[in-house]
Amino acid sequence: MTLRHAIAICLLGAAVLPAPAAGAPLDSRVEGTVTKGLDWLVRRQSRRGSWAANDGRYPTAMTALAGTSLLLEGSTTTQGRYAEPIRQAVDYLVSRSRVNGLIGDPKSDDRYTYGHGFSMLFLSQVLGEEEDERRREELVGVLTKAVEFSGRAQTSDGGWGYVSAKDGNNFDEGSTTITQVQGLRGCRNAGIPVPREIIDKAITYIHKCTMPDGGVQYSSKGGGGRPAISAAAIACLFNAGEYDDTHVPRMLDYAEKHLGNIANNGFGHWHYAHFYYAQVMYREGGRKWEAYRDQMEKRLLSEAQPEGETLFWSQGYIGPVYTTATNLTILQLENGTLPIYQR
User: Which of 27, 78, 292, 342 is 20 to 30 Å apart from 328, CA to CA?
Assistant: First the structure.
């Protein structure tokens, strides 16, 4: 099985997934920290239903990431402790859907493809559980247009940049490319048509960016291998459940070398890297996952900061909403509630 076939299966496979599998119960200390972290996010949600990074930036991306962390708890738009904030987040992102299919606002967001990709992922997970027929039709319409926009925004090399190919003079970059690919995979699994040519071009792009040592470089134009981007690429490939391509073992070795020791801070974007590497380790399962999980839980619980009866994480220049949402995603992977993160 080639890498091309693996990603094609990942994105073009069966549209209907089985019911979410129940995950292992969280450790009581972890569960308490997660609840307090989610409560902190809820308190930070705006009246419009959105969240934002430092200085009010990236509201689309932050809303999608925060909303996804709430979904992982098991709540939906109609049931559970966080039903209301999830519903408000959906309303906000739907309201950000533009005529051309972009979810976001290019006038206020200089890196709008991140928000677009994370929104496709979040809304596709909501669609899988949505029971209201009118709401389902609305989400299908938004996501169908969103997929079409992603296709038009793709660069000639098959990747995506911080903005569309047209707006960014065909610039591409690895991390936002992976965001698009995972968002497209979520849409396809929710029943939204994803043209095969988009995926074929993305596979070619990943091949081009993978270096001999397994590192995935910053861009098809160069930039050297990046641990964070490499972890993100592997997480996407693991969605296909295939490990036989010659690229994958090299990529895993590279990621383990740089990310296996979670105390290693000698590279940029630590939280982003482990947001994806945790997905890789979870799908690996067994002792590898358990050892990694135990280290990660110990570190994240020690770094959580109190605010009243809630907890949050503030490391990183993007801001506490981003760090809190990504850390809560890591801590809830074993819940097994969302198809996109299941083994």
Answer: 78
- The helix (run of H) or strand (run of E) holding residue 328 is helix 320-331
**Can you tell me the distance from the alpha carbon of 78 to that of 252, in angstroms, rounded to the nearest whole number?**
39
Tell me the whole-structure pTM to 2 decimals: 0.91
Q: Are 219 and 206 in contact (CB under 8 A)?
A: no
Cα 154 to Cα 11, 134, 173: the distances in Å are 16, 31, 11
Q: What is the CATH number of the domain that holds 126?
A: 1.50.10.20
Number of structural domains the chain divides into:
1
For residue 317, the 8-state DSSP code is S
Q: How many Cα atoms are found within 13 Å in the side-chain-facing hemisphere of 113?
A: 31
Structure tokens at 274: 């482990």
Query: Given the structure tokens 């043209």, which residue do they identify?
Result: 195
What distance in Å separates the CA atoms of residue 71 and residue 92, rounded to the nearest whole number? Answer: 16
**What's the rounded Cα separation, in Å, for the pair 60 and 48?**
12
Residue 123 belongs to domain spanning: 3-341
DSSP state string for 248-300 = HHHHHHHHHHHHSSTT---SS-HHHHHHHHHHHHHHH-HHHHHHHHHHHHHHH
Tell me the per-residue pLDDT of 89-136, one tens digit each, with 9 for 90 and over: 999 999 999 999 999 999 889 999 999 999 999 999 999 888 889 999
- Considering only 70-84, 201-215, 225-239, 315-329, which range has the smallest mean pLDDT? 225-239
Helix or strand holding residue 234 (H, E)? helix 227-238
